[in-house]
Write a structure and sequence with these properties.
It comes from Paraburkholderia dipogonis. With 327 residues, the chain is of the alpha/beta class. It has three domains: 3-86, Winged helix-like DNA-binding domain superfamily/Winged helix DNA-binding domain (Arc Repressor Mutant, subunit A, Orthogonal Bundle); 87-158 and 267-324, 3-Layer(aba) Sandwich (D-Maltodextrin-Binding Protein, domain 2); 163-265, D-Maltodextrin-Binding Protein, domain 2. 38% of the residues lie in helices and 24% in strands. The termini are far apart.
């Protein structure tokens, strides 16, 4: 029996109180998790986990053993960190949280490039549709693309800025001619992602500002689902340009109302992490890599509207940062 591997598996089961979720987090099969915990219990001669068809819980002995397991695994991580520090190389695992917008666009390339540079690193990724779905204690670093960040004591690094675009599919436009003016949107089927303004959209042109009341036929939290619905021809939507860049390029989506400027369309990509006095070498390495990657990224043309990375900012309110300027 590989006791250390069994301890790691048991610790994950104890954390989630769910064998299937533990298997998912570890990237192994359910049967391996079940067999490993059973083997560990046989080795110790005690029951650690109560199993029923409805729930999983720890026995009293299991609770005590889990606490010691956490201490042991933390010591092992510290040992790895000590060696990595002595060698000047990061090693270990980073807990990363990312909005679905970022996770389906830039994040895979960022992680692939970083791991090519630091092959000893691994990642535990959580994807969310709304920043309120995750707590700061659940990640080491977070990528957020929300319009307004919650008040927080986290360090905030603005990486880039993109703008929204109004889109529809060729199939939808074949049935319903594209709107020529913002006011014509009222006669179209509109789909709304929950992070987009849902009551009205404002546009600015040579004649001034026009507010268009929208009555969506679908309002859903996930921008990914909204994009897929637009591709299927269900209606018109307002989505981040970076999120639909490939679809605009291959023609599966078309941009609408290019002659009118959409107001309040800015989205900032933020890198968030704890401002601890002594940052772990793995976290510092990753943050420095991401910031430098965006700093060196060439500016895109004005039509794509992307701004470059800004400085590290410590403020009591993240919402203040959005109005303070990125550069």
């Amino acid at each position: 029996m590989n006791q250390l591997a069994s301890i790691r598996i048991f610790a994950k089961v104890a954390e989630y109180l769910n064998f299937a979720e533990a298997a998912k987090q570890l990237g192994i099969s359910n049967s391996v998790v079940t067999r490993s915990v059973a083997t560990l219990e046989e080795h110790l001669g005690v029951r650690l986990v109560n199993r029923t068809t409805r729930r999983v819980s720890l026995t009293g002995t299991g609770q005590l053993y889990w606490k010691r397991c956490i201490e042991l695994l933390r010591q092992l991580d510290d040992m790895d960190e000590c060696i990595a520090s002595a060698m000047g190389q990061p090693a270990g695992s980073l807990r990363i949280a990312a909005s679905s917008l970022y996770a389906t666009t830039d994040l895979p390339d960022v992680l692939a490039a970083y791991r090519a540079q630091e092959p000893r690193m691994s990642f535990d990724l959580t994807v969310f549709d709304n920043m309120s779905d995750v707590a700061a204690s659940e990640f080491d670093v977070c990528f957020s693309t929300e319009r307004r960040l919650r008040d927080s004591s986290l360090v905030c690094r603005p990486l880039a800025q993109t703008h929204d675009v109004i889109v529809a599919s060729p199939d939808y436009l074949a049935r319903c001619p594209a709107p020529c003016t913002p006011g014509e949107l009222v006669s179209h089927d509109v789909l709304v992602a929950s992070d987009a303004p849902s009551r009205y959209w404002e546009f600015r042109d040579t004649h001034g500002t026009q507010r268009v009341i929208v009555q969506p036929i679908m309002n859903i939290q996930s921008p990914q689902v909204v994009k897929r619905a637009v591709q299927a021809g269900l209606g018109i939507a307002r989505l981040s340009r970076s999120f639909v860049r490939n679809e605009l390029a291959n023609g599966s989506l078309r941009a609408l109302l290019d002659d009118a400027t959409l107001c309040g369309d800015e989205r900032t990509v933020w890198l968030l992490y704890s401002g601890q006095p002594y940052m772990a070498i793995a976290l510092r390495s990753f943050v420095d890599f991401v910031v430098e990657r965006y700093r060196q990224k060439p500016r895109e043309n004005k039509g794509q509207k992307e701004a470059c990375v800004g400085p590290e900012q410590h403020r009591p309110s993240n919402t203040e940062l959005l109005s303070s300027g990125i550069l």
